[in-house]
Structure prediction request, 423 residues.
Amino acid sequence: MTPAEYDFLRQFLKVRSGLVLSNEKQYLIESRLLPVARKAGVPSIAGLVAKLRDPRESLLADAVVEAMTTNESFFFRDKTPFEHLTQMMLPELLQKRAAQRKIRIWCAAASTGQEPYSIAMCLKEMGSKIAGWRFEIVGTDLSNDVLDRARSGVYTQFEVQRGLPIQMLLKYFTQNGDSWQISSEIRQMVQYRKMNLLDTFAGLGQFDIVFCRNVLIYFDQPTKVDVLSRVSKLLPDDGYLVLGAAETVVGLTDAFRTLPDRRGLYMTNGSAPAAAARPAAVATAAAAAPGQRFAVIGRGSA
Amino acid sequence: MKHCLVVDDSSVIRKVARRILEDMSFTISEAEDGQQALRVCQDSMPDAILLDWNMPVMDGLEFLGKLRLLEGGREPKVVFCTTENDVGHIARAIRAGANEYIMKPFDREIVEAKFHEVGLI
Prediction:
């Protein structure tokens, strides 16, 4: 791949998905995009780039974005956010929303569904404490293929063994040969919608909790500021934001504040002015990559 | 260092598991069947046991039942690791006192995830 082709693809991905690739991700592009190129009937990245320059190739453009942003996802990924959910966010919201008895949760990078389903299982485990309450979990992602998998709720034997306690597997899944399907009761708790975080998401309505994990790390600074600012507008003054382990709001926005001893968890900052963009030592995609358990790029999730 | 006993009649599986667990800073002992494994436990109770199901002489389930009756035998975290991948077997193992369950084939990520799950790492 020539430097010009690499630059074209970087720019293309940045505009289409917000994905920011560092200088040395040629191997990643080749491993992800050569299969897409061959499927489109061209033998090389050069041929693919030539086709992408044609604005009529919008289906191909979608396929390229999906291939570059597909990520591995785990049930109960990183554990801590789900402890924060069951030990802090939900108990507090159950008090604060006692009049409405309704809580809405958004998974902004739902990927293949492990994160929203992990949240749904956490809710189920609360049993009678949430009797009479309405919960809405909305999962969004920019890839239709990924959302179809999420809706099906079918996972491989490998997928159900990463992060999912065996008791939960027995309780919430049914086996079908080598694959496992999460129960319809859990599936019905989550609605999925296709959505690009670069576009407006005001139409989703208001939420009490937003999970936006392992997606900002792939965006550049102004995009992070923009997304965080718009997320803050969907949350009330006592709303929660959950970011990934390598992400922070610090130095990006004043719309959220950190919570002591609750890493990765933020609360909206009342009427504080949003989006005070200052350069800061935030994790870049390049810096965060070694912390990922799999050498992948794109939207992380659950 | 924590001590993990690997019980499997396949020397290949024991070797693979040993490599993964040594990287996770466990000291390893090995046993080829449940009876050998019981002897290891009577001698020095491990912190963790990675346990195959089907083995000659004494299988994993029988070993688990006997282990839990030994003095200190409720302490080790027992993680089954077997090709018996159906719900019935998994449920029996958990009822018998297993802490986690790995369905073969497995990889490093799964072993790490399951050991994390039971608080061993």
About this structure: Residues 11-23 of chain B form the longest helix (13 residues).
